[in-house]
Every structure is written in structure tokens, then in C-alpha cells.
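lol so apparently i was supposed to do this last week
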Amino acid sequence: MPGAAPVPGAPPASPAHALPPPRALAADPLPVIARRRSLRRFSAEPVSAQALADILHAMTSPAPQLSRAVRIDVLTATVAGVPPAAWRVEPTARGGDAPTEVGAIPAPMRLHRRVVHDPATLRRRARAAALDQDVIGDAAVVFVLSLDRDALRADPAGAARGYRHGFIEAGLVGERIYLAAGGLGLGVCAVGAFYDDEAAALVGLDAEREWPVHFAALGVPA
Ligand SMILES: Cc1cc2nc3c(=O)[nH]c(=O)nc-3n(C[C@H](O)[C@H](O)[C@H](O)COP(=O)(O)O)c2cc1C
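anyway here it is w/ flavin mononucleotide bound
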């Protein structure tokens, strides 16, 4: 409707959202590896958009090691300054061919809105998709990793090897969530128990083309 006044509290009309430029994380991950544990109790405090940008950057760099099939969607239940929704993370370093220059300032990550959810519905549907696990329903952010089936088949080593490469790559990305969030003092729990169809609908995947393989909950520790 031309000239209509924006509804207070409604998500912005643009389906894209730019996060702040990501910061490089601590070079030495060993202290985080030594103390990290899965965390399942989160406070109601929002995660900052800066922390989300930092973690997404860590997940998407360096470029893929084995497979270009991993796609990242993010559900923002409570992220300061980011409307609640399901977003597809724009591939930046991931999928790009040019190596990132050492010391270069990374480009801001962009999110593309796929599904609009009100906060209560987002939490309810995320929890239900993950077999009613509170760790997903109470998270400030849920990452959903999926595999692009065409990209698996197109693996230079062949489809059978590509299938295995895709899972290993998703595991690497999932581990980076733990390391990046741990370095920022945030809590994470990987979640492999979910219903494929509900997970796909939650983040707007075309289930024929993309296959959800991994969830991870993120939040401020309670
Ligand atoms: C692929 C994967 C799937 C997981 N799925 C779940 C899950 O569905 N629910 C859950 O509470 N924890 C889940 N976890 C967390 C594990 O229970 C946890 O990593 C393991 O018990 C070791 O504990 P730690 O992470 O504290 O070292 C998962 C972890 C991984 C790596």
C-alpha cells in the first residue's frame, strides 16, 4: 500500500540486514578448547549483533576445507537490533575463491530474511522441531546448518565422497561456533536431534534441494 505508515514494532520492509563488521577472534584457541563445555541454560539477555557477526565470521572463514555444500541459516530470537526471523547468511569468504588477505578488514556479514516469525512462534516452532528440547526453545540464537544436495553431487571427488565431505565440513563449522562463542563468554550446545521437515520449514529450506544436518543453540549463560 503506497504511503502506508510503518507498523510500530514490525520488521523492516527490506529483507536484508547488515551486521556490524566482524572482529577477529583470539588467535590461540587452546584455552577455549581446554575449558569449553556444552551449555544448556541461558539467561533472557539478548546476544549482541556484534557477537553474532563475530561468530558468523568465524564460521565462514577460512574458506571451505573439503566441501562447498554447507549453507547457514540463523534464527534470531533475541539479538539486540536484529528483528526476530529466520535468515540465510550470505556466503562471503565461504564459497568465494579469493583468499582473504592477512590483516584485511573483513566485510560485514549480510543476512537475508527467509521467514518472518513473531518471537513466541519462533521459539515454539524451534523447540518443537528439536524434539521439544529447552536448549533450543530458550536460545537467543539458533544456527541451522544444511547441505546443498547439488553441491554434494558436484564434489570434484565424486558424489559418494562429496556426501561424506559435506558432513565433515558441517562438523567443522559447528565446532567453530563453540570456539568463537566460548571466546566471547557465550554458551553453546550443538543439537543433532531434530525433525527434518519441521527444521526445513522453520528456516524456509526447499527440502528437495537442501538438507538440514545440524542445529546449535547460542545464548548468554544463565
Ligand atoms: C553433532 C552433535 C549433536 C548433539 N546433539 C545434542 C542434542 O540433541 N541435545 C543435547 O542436549 N546435546 C547435544 N549435543 C551435545 C553433546 O551432548 C555434548 O557435546 C557431549 O555430551 C559432550 O559434552 P561437552 O560438549 O560439554 O564436552 C550434541 C553434540 C554434537 C557434537
